[in-house]
Structures are given as structure tokens and as C-alpha cells.
Amino acid sequence: MAGQEKLRNYLAIYEHTANNWAAFSPDVPGCVATGDTRQEAEKAFSEALAFHLEGLAEEGLPIPEPRSEAGMVAVSVPE
Asked: Is there a domain that residue 69 lies in?
């Protein structure tokens, strides 16, 4: 059924660097975006991810399934 779409939620990782914010998803290698703020990076990554997945579909390549999860780990660190 060509033309059908379904909503998928991909884990997005946001990294603050010395100069800007970067965003990527471990489930979609090669798709990254940056922005001066986290909000800009979020918007840019959402657009980049949609474009990337559309390109895969147009080429007849498989769309990666979202598989990654995130969590926090608490550890003691030396002061």
C-alpha cells in the first residue's frame, strides 16, 4: 500500500558542545543536525530525520525500526 505512513518515535540524543548543540539517533546512522540552542537542534534534527527517512523510502531501502532506549545511571565520582 504505497503512500501510507505510520508514526514512529526515535530516540534522539542531544549533546551540548563548546560551540553549539548536536542531535542524532543511534537507530539512524548518518543522520545528524546542529543548532545554536537545543531547541534549534531539536527542530533541525526533526526535519533532517524526516528528510532522511523519505530518502530511504524513495530509494526502496528499509526504514530503520526504533530500537534504542535511554536511561540515567548514578555513580559516585571523586571530588
From this structure: yes
Name which of 33, 31, 28 is nearest 10 in CA terms.
Answer: 28
Contact 45, 23 (CB under 8 A): yes
- Report yes or no: 16 and 37 within 8 Å, Cβ to Cβ: no
* pTM metric for this prediction: 0.86
- Domain membership of residue 60 as a residue range: 8-79
Cell of residue 77, nine digits: 565520582
Number of domains the chain is built from: 1
Mind listing the pLDDT tens digit for each residue in 20-55? 999 999 999 999 999 999 999 999 999 999 999 999
